[in-house]
From TrEMBL:
GO biological process: cell division
Natural source organism: Nesterenkonia jeotgali
Gene Ontology MF annotations: ATP binding; ATP hydrolysis activity
Protein name: ATPase
InterPro entries recorded: ATPase_AFG1-like, P-loop_NTPase
Amino acid sequence: MPSNATPLSQRTPQLGVGQLLEGLKPSFRFAEVSFDSYIPDPAHPSQEKAVTALREFSASVGASQGGGGFFGKLFGRGPARAQAPAGIYLDGGFGVGKTHLLASLYHSVEGQRAFGTFVEYTNLVGALSFRRTVDVLSDYSLVCIDEFELDDPGDTVLMSRLMRELADAGVKLAATSNTLPGSLGEGRFAAADFQREIQVLSDQFAVIKVDGEDYRHRGLPEAPAPLSSAEVEGFAAEKYPEARIAVDDFGALCEHLSGVHPSRYRQLVTDMDVLVLKDVETIEGQALALRFVVLADRLYDQDIKVVASGKPFDELFTEEMMTGGYMKKYHRTVSRLTALARAGQMGETAL
């Protein structure tokens, strides 16, 4: 018989500083990935080039920067060349495997290193203070930032300073994003007023473009239609008799998310295998929509199957949201939730 896991809307995870630092590592989905397990799409040569660049970058972590290899080719050789950036930045659309590559880099490096989402690092600063965060992370050889994005001016100033000071301390940096570093913040706040900070961020990275299609849905059928509210819970119990199933009303979960900091969502979705979402509705408010983006990422990280009723996930966000400043985040969320729903209702592996 399936076991009833505590609904997400009744969970209030609390995190200490030690737990925040301990949590800075790849999630369950990416715990054992490697460069060898990444399969480049032959139709998009930039994917193979990204693997090569990251392998070379990995070899430079913990060693003094030389003039050859990837960085030498990118910035030239000899005393006149510009000093190479401390980091590598994977820019590309959702579903091209950037997180897989970033986690592979993390696993390829020995010694102290950190892997976390953008929001986890900003929360670490809030818990430790900026100076203490710099002191702690300066002892690391590599800091990986997944889903790098700037949603407000405060984050821009904070991350600009943090990246600069870590680079000055000799820490190698690696990041993924759907947006080129020089374009961070566009369409979200008055980014033109923070060009100095954005340029400082951009200067820390060599940009590697990763092109391609969303591998989660490449050649696959459309997602199954949502179940009815009356059958969704029984369907999950019958299909997953040994699973830990959390059942949540969509409205109650959304209300609960507004009171839980996104940095705690990783702990919010622990100790469960399947999430039953009843009566999914289109999200109208931007703040809630962005929180749901983080929740979807954490569900995907932990490979939690989703069985849902109500609106299909391609109607989770308004048309305005899907074409606005955060459109890349929302499209990624729809892609990931659709993969989890396909896994939940059809028994497939969520790619």
